[in-house]
Amino acid sequence: MAHLSNPLATAEQLYQKTSDNSLPIEIQDGIRFYTARLTQAAGLLLRLGQDITAQANVLLFRYWLVDGFMNHEFSDVSASIIYLTAKISASPRSLRSITNVYAYLLSPSSPLNSKPESLKTAKPPNPESYYLSETRYITFRNRLLHIEGQILNALGFNTHVALPHPLAITYLQTLDVFSSSIRKGLGKEVAKRTIEYLNTALLSPQMLYLTHQPASLATAAIYLAAKDSGIKLPDVEWWEVFDCEREELGFLAVGMGSLEGIVRREVERWGEKGVISRSDVREELGRMGVGNGNKNGIRDSKEGEDEEAEMARMLDEKIPETS
Amino acid sequence: MATPSHQLSPQSNAFSPRAFAVQNGRSSNSFRGCSRITDYDIIGKLGEGTFGEVHRARSKKMGTVVALKKILMHNEKDGFPITALREIKLLKLLSHPNILKLEEMAVEHHTKSTDKRKRAIMYMVTPYMDHDLSGLLENPSVKFTEPQIKCYMLQLLEGLRYLHENKILHRDMKAANLLINNKGILQIADFGLARHYDDPPPVAGHGGGDATRDYTTLVVTRWYRPPELLLHLRKYTTAIDLWGVGCVFGEMLIGRPILAGDSDPNQLKIIFELVGTPTEETMPGWRSLPGAEGMNFPPRPSSLWQRFREYGSGAISLLGELLKLDWRKRVNAIDALEHPYFKTPPLPAIAGDLPTFEDSHELDRRKFRSQKAAPPPAPKGGTVGMGPTGGWGEPSTNGTGYSHGDGYGGYRHHNSGRYPPHGGHRNGVPPPPPQDDRRPAWRRDDRPDPRGLPPRPPPVDYHDAGRGDRPDGYRSRSRELDRGPPPPRSRGGVPNVDTYIPSYGADSGRRDDRRRRDDRDDRRHVGDRDRHSTRSRSRSPARERDRDRIREREPIDRERDRDRVRDRDIYRR
């Protein structure tokens, strides 16, 4: 059943990308987490179903295992991938909507820049800060379309992503979590928690969706959710029914719980920034004393943008200042 | 549980992702990029069309012969064409011996530095198949035996059963989309119109079941289009593909398309002539279908038995099951496979035992054609791109007794650059008159062409390209354009106004965008005009394409509406 399983990352791919001298692993973690979170936020603003946003984030991580991080701006890759994923789904989004949403999320007004608690008191966003002029729209759009081709090429057109979310619900039903014998509402609670674990795992730089099949992810999320809510699951090794070995379950349970620590570490590193860019990474590398930004793989590739477009963009960006 | 077996027993210690991946990874097959075109040695061109070319090539790595189908990337405004993406995604999920396999995608980069900015060219890599069924049937030296037909039918139904079981509607079932190789294997190809079926898959003994949601009716090449689609049933089911199988079955029996209508109303007419006019019994609820409004046919019984008498009761019985007007009762693939026809002697042949034939491909024919290609006559009340007589009714212009004069009517004439002429086979020599004499009387009646040549294949009306559920107004309008004079009944409350305003001015750029975006759709109807949408890509004369383009236009000029319209249009099917 091809559509219930995913292609997984090969050992070489994981090994190369993590031990390669391209970028320190911690930096890679940061890029993955921040960009996945950006995609998630964009998915919400674009009112895409979570299934599409989730697929986009899986594709994003897959792409980065084939192509280098520094080939394109992270946010551009995120935008391009969400455009592509929505395009092949039942709810496509126009380039215009996507560029607008990303302009907003990358602007100073972006809600990603603030801490959750300060969001309520934040002053209304300043529309001028995320206005996208026609020329900037066109250059942005062209970049997205260029990267789309790169992504398709890198993925060999394998755009199918099997998600664990529907499986998890089926498994919960199989485990009788929604039956009347269980306290009212508890089943729903467990289901909600399970989905939360699965969505959190999407942001995890450990790339759990690239190393484990949906069945295992669903099982692990149920296991954790059941533990959180105190619901009683069968005493036997029920996960084996769902094709998940004890060891794999243990690994995933730890993996799914570890995002918090990674995020705390990265937030400390990047501070108030809601989105990180290539130049942030280069700066950080300089601070860390790793390479000078010109080392192999850390090169900034500007191939996607021609000089003309660049000029137009610069001219364009001048306008708000003068007007 | 539907999980890959390798998951059932990972030999523990799989604590690191790496170790796990070692065990579970699909080796190099995971998310590897596309291969390069340089991994293949191009052997020759097989076909060419609006949407691209098809080449025969040999894989340097595997040594296998493959077909490379080029996906043309013009200045796609929306990036990679959505229809191509969908087809690729679908094909990658399918795996069945009777479904054409998409091996991989190959990319060709521009090498010249000046071309660096241009987009790369993408190719779909599929196994090379020697023939398509349509081409094979056109070959006068090929005569199918009954065991052979049974063998192909079984394979076709197996493939279709798999598709439907996996909730996929093919929506372009026709002989030209069935590929056959010299090992006797038949494969279903061209998923450009396919889509996910949102309703329960068919179960044994229950026909196609019922659909709960609407799909676009603008699918399936006309000759193979079932009556419920012609009457605009939107909640159609997998049964639409089975009608196509029936048409293909009949075509294999008599050696030519059995229902070659030259317009949508004519298609219905000849369907009813063959299987009888619909009644509340044979097609319950047909009166309430949107397209049946105001339709009246003098009652007529089915003539299936008379017409197919010589092929025996088993064949006729199966044909009757497949060509059932009532789509709810039309046999599904599961049950059709159990039909007694396949279990009575002569039994189906084994695929490997079938005779082999010389390759049937389109290019040679088309080469010939392009030399003398003349633009087709402007439609005078005919359907899109078709002269009133179709390509086959043209008077002789080339001195051989009949012509390929209209530039694409000559699809039956395989003028081979590669193969020297031999025995009149496919080289444009089979003179029609004897054929005419052999034809049963019933055939002569419903052929528009006095010489008995089949009319040109129907263009799928361009709106058939599955581009989407347009607002009704648009579709209706275009349909009316297709038909020339507006049909007597008004459709869905849309005023019968022709809003087409040809404009070659400021808006032409936009039109081009539409064309490019709908590239694949475009090739579809152009291809269908040629009746070989996968393999035979006839370059339709530019003039004609322009005409389509104009027709297709929606008279909305305001910039602001453009995006909205596009968003609404192209993605929905």
Element layout with pairings:
The complex is a heterodimer of chains A (323) and B (573).
Chain A: H1 11-19, H2 25-45, H3 50-66, H4 74-87, H5 95-106, H6 116-119, H7 134-155, H8 165-174, H9 186-203, H10 208-211, H11 214-229, H12 246-257, H13 259-270, H14 278-288, H15 307-322
Helix pairs in contact in A: 2-3, 2-4, 2-5, 3-4, 4-5, 4-7, 8-9, 8-11, 9-11, 11-12
Chain B: H1 17-24, E1 35-36, E2 40-49, E3 52-59, E4 65-71, H2 82-93, E5 104-108, E6 121-127, E7 131-132, H3 133-138, H4 146-165, E8 168-169, E9 178-180, E10 186-188, E11 195-196, H5 227-230, H6 239-254, H7 264-275, H8 304-307, H9 312-322, H10 333-337, H11 363-371, H12 432-438, H13 441-446, H14 472-482, H15 508-517, H16 519-529, H17 542-552, H18 559-571
Helix pairs in contact in B: 4-6, 6-9
Give a description of the structure.
The complex is a heterodimer of chains A (323) and B (573). The longest helix of chain A has 22 residues, at 134-155. Chain A has helices spanning 11-19, 25-45, 50-66, 74-87, 95-106, 116-119, 134-155, 165-174, 186-203, 208-211, 214-229, 246-257, 259-270, 278-288, 307-322. Chain A is built from 15 helices and no strands. Chain A starts with 10 loop residues before the first helix and ends with a helix. By secondary structure, chain B is α+β, with helices and mostly antiparallel strands. Chain B has 18 helices and 11 strands. Classes of the chains: A mainly alpha (323), B alpha+beta (573). At the A-B interface, helix 1, helix 3, helix 4, helix 7 and helix 12 of A face helix 1, helix 2, strand 5 and helix 18 of B.
Primary descriptors:
heterodimer, A: 323 residues, mainly alpha, Cyclin A, domain 1, 2 domains, 15 helices, 61% helix, 0% strand, globular, B: 573 residues, alpha+beta, Phosphorylase Kinase, domain 1, Transferase(Phosphotransferase), domain 1, six-stranded mixed sheet, three-stranded antiparallel sheet, 18 helices, 31% helix, disordered N terminus, disordered C terminus
